[in-house]
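INSTRUCTION: Work out how this chain folds

Token vocabulary: learned, describes local backbone geometry

RECORD BEGINS BELOW THIS LINE
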Amino acid sequence: MPRPSRLNLPGMPQHVVQRGNNRQACFHSRSDYLLYLSLLHRSSEKHNCQVHAYVLMPNHVHLLLTPDKGDGVSLLFRDMGRDYVRGFNKRYERTGTLWDGRFRSSLIENDKYLLACYRYIELNPVRAGIVEDPSSYEWSSFRANGLGRNNSLLTPHRTWLALGTDNADRRSRYLNLFTREVSDQVISRIRVGLAAGKPL
């Protein structure tokens, strides 16, 4: 049975997840995380994909991206799959695949779900019980989006920019979104959208 074709629209944000094969770890050391972020920065610029939010979990990755071209996200992950896995395999003297098949993605059609995806992504380490507060997790975009730490990988989405009149106001309003949990209903919709490749 042929794989369903992806919904890829230029200028439309996408929530993307890629998991380690058999749920195995895809990051073992600090240098692995740094390599992934460096390659993501290079590939996102090469393929004109704006990165708005991310979290690198021990065995999977979540990204919030907006491609300028329809095939931008696919090309980005093609390069990441080649370059990161090559470096990872060399470092750990292993061979074969690292990722569990194709990445999963879901288009985001409105501002409500875009901000929910920001929170869903950056709260991943909290839901996993790794940290109690998203600011304690080094490998996510929360410190930039919520606390103003410089991160050249990120481009604020227009919805984030519309939260306030200046960056301090935007961060304050953004942090206020984290005073309440993402509802179970929204989490379920996000996960179903990713699993089925359907828009939110």
